[in-house]
Design a protein that fits this description.
The protein has 154 residues and is α+β, with helices and mostly antiparallel strands. The chain contains 2 helices and 11 strands.
Length: 154
């Protein structure tokens, strides 16, 4: 007589593992949806024309980014700019990137605004906020702050 190590309980173990994986998947998806509903969703990606990029942009903390038609920029207390991880100031040249695939939006995101400063390089994504107004934004890792930093055109 042949002895099976798990016998008839093997099917129950596989079924239990399948149920556990399903619960974990649904739980993770629910967590992501709730996180996005708390106002942490990124702006809708949109390509902005060169003309739309040129001008003064402000953040909620009164940071200012001036994009000039001659290809230069000046940033004062703007997230992701400068040599620090938080707010910083810098100046240099700017350009627009080619765009890339985003798993977050399941589509092509905007090319982004590339800032080549004296202290460091930064990249801001282009988009539209809930009201349809142009916005430059980026994700950030600042404890206690919103995970998304936005700059709105004046």
């Amino acid at each position: 007589m042949r002895v099976r190590p798990f016998g008839k309980h093997r099917k129950l173990g596989c079924l239990g593992l399948g149920v556990l994986m399903g619960v974990l998947t649904v739980g993770t998806a629910t967590g992501v949806v709730l996180w996005l509903r708390q106002g942490n969703a990124p702006p809708q990606p949109r390509f902005l024309s060169r003309t739309a990029l040129i001008g003064t942009w402000r953040s909620a903390n009164d940071g200012e980014l001036r994009i000039q038609a001659d290809g230069t920029f000046k940033a004062t207390e703007v997230c992701g700019v400068g040599d620090g991880e938080g707010m910083g100031s810098d100046s240099g040249t700017w350009g627009s990137g080619p765009g890339e695939w985003s798993a977050l939006t399941y589509g092509i995101t905007t090319g982004g605004l590339d800032l080549m400063g004296r202290a460091a390089q930064a990249e801001l994504d282009e988009g539209k906020d809930g009201a349809g107004d142009p916005v430059l934004w980026m994700f950030r890792d600042a404890p206690g702050d919103s995970p998304i930093c936005e700059l709105h055109k004046e």
